[in-house]
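User: structure tokens for this one?
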Amino acid sequence: MTAPTRPTGTGTPVSLSDAQRRFADVPGYLSACTGGLPSRETAAALTTFVSAWTSGAVDARAIGADVERCRELYARIAGVDRVAFGSQVSQLVSIVATSVPDGAEVLCADGDFSSLTHPFEQLASRGVRVRYAPIADLAAAIGPGTALVAFSLVQSATGEVADADAIARAAEAAGARTLVDLTQSLGWLPVGAAGFDYTVCHAYKWLCAPRGTAFLTVREGLDDSMTPLAAGWCSADDVWSSCYAGHTPLASGAGRFDLSPSWPVISGTAAALELFAEIDADAVRDHDVRLANLARETLGLPAADSAIVTWADADGSDLAAMTAAGITASGRAGNARIAFHIWNTEADVELLTRALERR
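Assistant:
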């Protein structure tokens, strides 16, 4: 296994300023970690689909072509070439869970998102044990009995960025495989999927796609380690010849794990991924983290390397103050949580400062 690599595009990078012009001005929207905003191109694609649906002009084969375009674009963003298509992270994690041997151990991070951890908890009847450790200690917690290490590259509840290099090295040394959830990182943190055995990602947060499109990447040679337990007509190389019982071959590659796509969101997903396949990923990270650190300074918190900012807010008073000031934020695990992405500016930090001064 190699260390994680940054995704790369193949065309002329889109500048940050150009990308910012593609989003509506929504002052105080500090919630990319809950759901990204759509670009104008994504919003237009959704409107076009509804118009076609209303007039009876939906073309299923054209949607299939858009699915393949999404797969190609996501592969470019994630820096890999073996991608399966789904609708929800938990569905895809459940497929990875079939690779865990009976009686084996799965190591997860304390407080990680349940869509990543819950499927493994359901394997108890096979003797699979799920053990938890703090994300900062995950590499050291990997032992000789660990079959799989599953963690989010960026933690949803805290914004903490995992030391993926150290975890990957420790897993390789122990003979354990890695499953990494990129949902809270891909789109702002330029670390792709190539350094891990399996990754999952829902595209509706930092990749700014409509909710309903998720991706699974599988390292070459591991297809047979998993059972495509949700196989259907879209799990073949030629989906239109595998619609009926009697001829249902699996795709030759990672496409065997494909799930039937949610038609209304596919064209909007393609439009979103078009942007992130060509955007200057380093500029996005620098922009997002710079604004997050300005917010941390306002909050009296130390600088960090994450676009997500959290702080203790057990009674929800800070979240209430932000909401009253017109800020869209969230509360998770006793914390107030905000995030900064492409559309945010210093004016959002100033709005945050004023809101919390009045609390």
